[in-house]
């Protein structure tokens, strides 16, 4: 799970509260993601409100309700759009989609931005037991291309794509996504951008024969299971592919994954780099 966070004095007490937006399968749905308002108690942070159906950007308005600043949040639900959430005396609403639409021209201070650089740099919350595998996958590349590389770098490496898919908005991360295919070299690249016109960055990569690209540790299509394990060791977790006679070795987490799909001969038939969950 990833998160974005910002600090702002909401209650006027002179000490900043923290607004955090969690990103990931466990925290997000079709209407948006889960946000938290946290208060510094002096010995730790206490949850003031847990709010569903929120997306970036999040702003602190100049207006107040019960001494607390109103928040303007992006949101989904039946009627997507910016919402104004107000403090009720005990907290902010638990579901932003039920709050009234935000008016135009309201003075507000940004707390969490929706810029692609902020989303790409969102810290990853990783259990200690998974830290080693997450760090391995997060630093990986295929043919030198990494998650976050610009689309131009992909074209310089692979040439013009045969097809450039249409863009579609993903509610889970608030970004537009599309696919470029390079069938002559066995590569499909997923791209993401904050707007339909870009700028586009590499979000995922998938290789199959006749792909010649290799991972940073020298594993490519046709490598053996033994070679994958020698390169990645305990970081490679075995799994099932869902196809008879096939299996997988996965490095990383659902959101920073390097997946090797093995055929009946225990040779790498496909390599995937990117998020496994929207």
What's the short version?
With 278 residues, this protein is mainly β. Helices cover 10% and strands 41% of the residues.
Task: Report on the architecture of this protein.
Helix content is 10%, strand content 41%. The chain is mainly beta and 278 residues long. The chain folds into 2 domains: 2-120, no CATH class; 128-274. Strands 9, 10, 11, 12, 13, 14, 15, 16 and 17 form a 9-stranded antiparallel sheet that branches. Strands 1, 2, 3, 4, 5, 6, 7 and 8 form an 8-stranded antiparallel sheet that branches. The N and C termini lie close together (11 Å).
Tell me the series of helices and strands, N- to C-terminal. Answer: EEEEEEEEHHHEEEEEHEEEE
Strand content: 35-45%
Radius of gyration: 22 Å
Cα(first) to Cα(last) distance is 11 Å
Sheet with the most strands? 9 strands, antiparallel
Number of helices: 4
Q: What ranges have pLDDT less than 50 throughout 5 or more consecutive residues?
A: none
Write the layout of secondary structure elements.
Layout: E1 2-8, E2 17-23, E3 28-29, E4 32-40, E5 45-65, E6 68-74, E7 83-85, E8 108-112, H1 116-120, H2 131-138, H3 151-158, E9 163-164, E10 168-170, E11 175-182, E12 187-193, E13 201-208, H4 225-232, E14 237-240, E15 247-253, E16 256-262, E17 268-274
Antiparallel strand pairs: 1-2, 2-4, 3-4, 4-5, 5-6, 5-8, 6-7, 9-11, 10-11, 11-12, 12-13, 13-17, 14-15, 15-16, 16-17
């Amino acid at each position: 799970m990833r998160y974005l966070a910002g600090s702002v004095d909401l209650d006027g007490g002179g000490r900043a509260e923290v607004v955090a937006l969690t990103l990931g399968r466990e925290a997000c749905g079709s209407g948006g993601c889960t946000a938290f308002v946290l208060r510094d108690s002096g010995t730790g942070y206490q949850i003031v409100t847990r709010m569903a159906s929120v997306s970036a950007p999040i702003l602190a308005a100049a207006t107040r309700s019960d001494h607390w600043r109103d928040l303007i949040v992006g949101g989904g639900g039946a009627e997507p759009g910016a919402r104004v959430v107000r403090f009720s005396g005990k907290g902010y609403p638990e579901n932003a989609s039920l709050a009234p639409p935000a008016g135009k021209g309201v003075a507000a201070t940004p707390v969490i931005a929706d810029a692609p650089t902020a989303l790409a740099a969102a810290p990853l919350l990783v259990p200690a037991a998974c830290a080693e595998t997450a760090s391995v996958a997060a630093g990986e590349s295929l043919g030198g291309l990494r998650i976050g590389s610009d689309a131009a770098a992909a074209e310089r490496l692979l040439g013009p794509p045969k097809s450039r898919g249409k863009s579609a908005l993903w509610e889970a991360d608030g970004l537009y996504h599309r696919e470029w295919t390079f069938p002559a070299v066995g590569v499909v690249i997923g791209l993401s951008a904050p707007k339909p016109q870009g700028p586009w960055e590499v979000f995922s990569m998938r290789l199959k024969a006749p792909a010649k690209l290799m991972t940073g540790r020298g594993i490519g299509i046709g490598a053996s299971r033994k070679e994958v394990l020698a390169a990645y060791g305990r970081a490679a977790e075995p799994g099932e592919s869902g196809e008879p006679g096939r299996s997988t070795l996965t490095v990383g987490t659902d959101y920073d994954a390097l997946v090797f799909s093995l055929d009946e001969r225990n040779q790498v038939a496909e390599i995937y780099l990117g998020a496994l969950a929207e």
